[in-house]
Amino acid sequence: MVGSYQKVTKWRYHLLILSRLPKWKLINGSRNSGVPLSEMWGIFNGPQLYRIFGLSNERAPNTVETIGNYSLSTLKGLLYVSTSLAFGPVVLYILYNRGMLAPIAATGVLKYIVILGIFGYGGRFVGRLMDSDYRQFVGVWEKAKIGTAEDKQSLKRYDFELIGVTPDYRAVENRDLWYLPAYNEGSAFSNLLATYAVHAFGRHMIYPGSMAILNTLMSSTLRVARNNFVASKNGQRVWLNSTTGDLIDAMFIPPDSSADAERQRTLVICCEGNAGFYEIGITNTPIQLGYGVLGFNQPGFAESNGLPFPTNVLAAAEAVFQYATNVLQYREEDIVLFGWSIGGFPASWLAANHPNVKALILDATFDDLLPLAESRMPSFLHSIVEVAIRKYFNLEIHRILEQYRGPLRLIRRLHEEILIIDDQSMNDVQKRATNRANYLLKKVLYDRHPDLIKDLEPQVDRWLKMTPAQRAMSAGLERNATESANRLAKLLSACDHYFVDFDANHVTPLDPGYFNIPMARTNF
């Protein structure tokens, strides 16, 4: 009797669940509660819905959908680890040692994978069917694919996983763009090792913001910040298609109506660092000053898809620039390029290819990635590191700046911990002397003012070791009328013009007081 009662109770529970599911239409019928078959696939395989912009709370999936989502996340994580170049060989070795590659054992493993997949997709599908908000969203999402501009704008009310969307702008290929020359040196063996190292773990070290685990950890914070931009700053979210086929998630913040006319005319394009996102990154500094701001996430970051190899990163930056000029209708002369850390690479490249921009501001940026990479790897691997960096991540920013002659500002962090070569020293002055921003300044001086810096590089090194207060004190002690003294004074004046120190570490947000747009200057 007890067993019969338990069976009846179990069936009643299942019937209760089924009774809550909407009845879908086989053909477009008259029932309002039905779900058209055209939307069934969207419910099954559609994007995750995070929230409706403007609402204080995120969407909370029901228990059934949550279980399905967790199951699919687990499955994707297992497949990623098992097939990655970094962990795949280790997983294969473990499976081989345990005899799990034999046909019978492999079939058993495959069975559990299939069960987990069915459980995940099935749970998510049923959970979404039970959610009227999600069904309404899928209807808008499906309609926006082939609908009017109004339909696409209706979709912008939602914050969701960016799959199956139509871009707001498709970048046009420009064959006249300048790029650093390709690197094709090194032996076949070193090239093979370099290729494996880059794809197995090198890219993740250079661009950790593209790692799935970091994106998962940051997702909630990014969604809250995105909602704040849209709800409080009148932010306009845009989706751009780059020439490499990546979908780039960007956000335009209109200028503050209370700002002066010059700031309202100016657009700041922000290029984030290797673990930076437009939602919580450098965009906030110019926004506080009332400028119009256009930020974007690099390929593989947050909701932007693709991988952040240099070609993809530059294509994304060019798509953003084209959108600014062709759609937002900003003149090049009214655009400021702002790059932080590794974001100085796409920002400098944009300046090199669009030399009429108003200014280029580089905050905590290096001259070349190779010295930094070598300083963090064992010396016996330096030859492999050189091939890997030069072939796949040749970020020689100083060479890119040789193509740009416009207004330039370099900002160095006095307590920099990322761009220094000597990170073991306890002496701040010694560590500051190895900051790669120093080398970027000197290379700019050699390129733009070779007559001034000739034979005076040690004086620049001495100037770089000083704090701003020490420089001000020493300036009044070195006045005389000799020709060499005048040349040194002009050189240090050039240093003051291009270079600013900010008393902070690498990740501290830039104080708005240091965001000063430089003017063009050739005589010192």
From TrEMBL:
A Gene Ontology BP annotation from the UniProt entry: monoacylglycerol catabolic process
Pfam families tied to this protein: ABHD16_N (PF22990), Abhydrolase_1 (PF00561)
GO molecular function ontology, one term from the record: monoacylglycerol lipase activity
Keyword terms of this UniProt record: Membrane, Transmembrane, Transmembrane helix
Domain spans labelled AB hydrolase-1: 267-435
GO CC annotation terms, alphabetical: endomembrane system
Transmembrane region(s): 77-96, 102-122
Domain of life: Eukaryota
Sequence ranges assigned to domain Phosphatidylserine Lipase ABHD16 N-terminal in this UniProt record: 39-161
Gene3D superfamilies: alpha/beta hydrolase (3.40.50.1820)
Listed name of the protein: Uncharacterized protein
